[in-house]
Amino acid sequence: MWQLRVSPSWRGLALTMLLPLAGCAEGGGEWQGSVTDSAGVRIVTNTGGGLWAPSAGWTVEEDLRIGSAEGEAEYQFGQIAGIDVASDGRIFILDQQARDVRVFDQDGRFIARMGKAGSGPGELGQGAGPVFVGPGDTVSVPDVGQQRVTRYTAAGEPAGSFPVSMADGIAVKWMEAPDGDLVQQAMIMALPNQPSVEPRNLLLRRDPRGEITDTLMIMPAGQTMDFSGGQPRMTLFAPEPMWAVGPQGHLVYGNNSVYRLEIFGPGGELERVISKDRERNPITETDQEEFRRAIREAWEQAGMPPQAMDMMGQALRFAEYYPAYANLFGGPAGSVWVQSVQSPEDVRESGATFDLQDIGGPEWEIFDAEGRLLGVVRMPPRFTPLLFRDDHIYGVLRDDLDIQYATRMRVSRPEIQQAASD
Questions:
Q1: 12, 338 Cβ separation under 8 angstroms
Q2: 175 close to 246: Cβ distance less than 8 angstroms
Q3: How far is CA 303 from the centre of its chain?
Q4: Cβ contacts of residue 143 below 8 Å, gap of 6+?
């Protein structure tokens, strides 16, 4: 079990050209920071720029895009909610709007489809997603609305399901461990007309059959949603626990109210703590007005009645400050990727159009396996990463018309290329 140490002190872009990594202004080969030891745990404090010299860091380049604005239906996506890759390179994409999983070869050619809308065996509900390809290329799709995980054989045939009861916690996030087990965040919170409970978040490990084999971590409750007092309240940008399972089986954990990350090894031991100086920006009245406008516009497009919008609007609150970061991932070579937060003003200054789906900024700070800041990568505009696999990043790219494409980005690491040429 990963033993959580709570820090003293919400979760959760079309380029084909090479995108350089912008190194920190103070960076250039000499790391600025300190490393101390605390009972065998490395405490890594980053106080300045990264190790990358200007124009000498990693780069990302788009090398595959799947999707189309028109034409064959198999290539049109409404809401991509999950991507995974099989052992032979086939790409599995879950479309939450169509409620199916589409399979493509490694060059992006359509092969097959599995699942359809419904509540019967092998069918998917409105909240289905993401998708995971496990041992033997069997496929699993969590379906929170139907409180189950639906499974398929490697050939795409329904292979039963296992229950995931909301009574045991609302499944708010899933990831896959390198051994094929699923890691589920179960949010336990006080609900109206239900027995009182202690709010908290559990990280549960499930084997491919769905059995809970371990409680990996007990995390504190997030502060975004609050049902106490019988009336729901939502506070955007409130502190939330953040976590990710890296390709080598390491767990990255943090609370986004502070820039402090804890890295646990595959065996559950705390190996290091990474921190970085960052001043948090206040959420201004102008920002709040922009967010409310965008949220109401989204509700209108979804067909929400005006009375319901008014009621939901009254329940909406904002934290005083933006989070210290928007998202995090474990990347290649034991690296940790941490996404910046952007305000509506940041978007306007960049010349882009504000989009509620792009709260996370395009800049990601990269730390090496030792916890030292390397530099900053700027992702393509309107690209949302979903999966890191070896030296590739799979995610969703949206064009100016909000049409979605499943996209694969290649991470180019100069040190690997240099070693190959030597």
A1: no
A2: no
A3: 27
A4: 124, 125, 127, 128, 149, 150, 161
Distances (CA, A) of 60 to 51, 95, 196: 18, 25, 48
* 3-state secondary structure string across 218-278: EEECCCCEECHHHCCEEEECCCCEEEEECCCCCEEEEECCCCEEEEECCCCCEEEEEEECC
Structural domains of the chain in order of their starting residue, each with its CATH number: 33-283+319-421 (2.120.10.30)
Give the closest residue to 241 by CA, choosing from 8, 12, 2, 10: 10
Which tokens hold the place of 328? Answer: 């995090």
Q: What would the two tokens of residue 419 be?
A: 């070693």
d(CA 2, CA 215): 8
Prediction pTM value: 0.88
Specify the length of the chain in residues: 422
Distance CA 416, CA 181 (A): 30
Q: Do 205 and 267 form a contact (C-beta atoms < 8 A)?
A: no
| Cβ within 8 Å of residue 145, ≥6 positions away | 125, 126, 127, 128
Q: Quick: pLDDT tens for 203-223.
A: 999 998 899 999 999 999 999
Q: Quick one: how many helices (H) and strands (E) in the chain?
A: 4, 31
**C-alpha–C-alpha distance, residues 376 and 388, integer Å:** 17
Q: Encode pLDDT of 375-402 as tens digits.
A: 999 999 889 999 999 899 999 999 988 8
**Residues with Cβ < 8 Å from 136, sequence gap 6 or more?**
154
pLDDT above 70: residue 24: no
- How far apart CA 73 and CA 77 sit, in angstroms, is 8
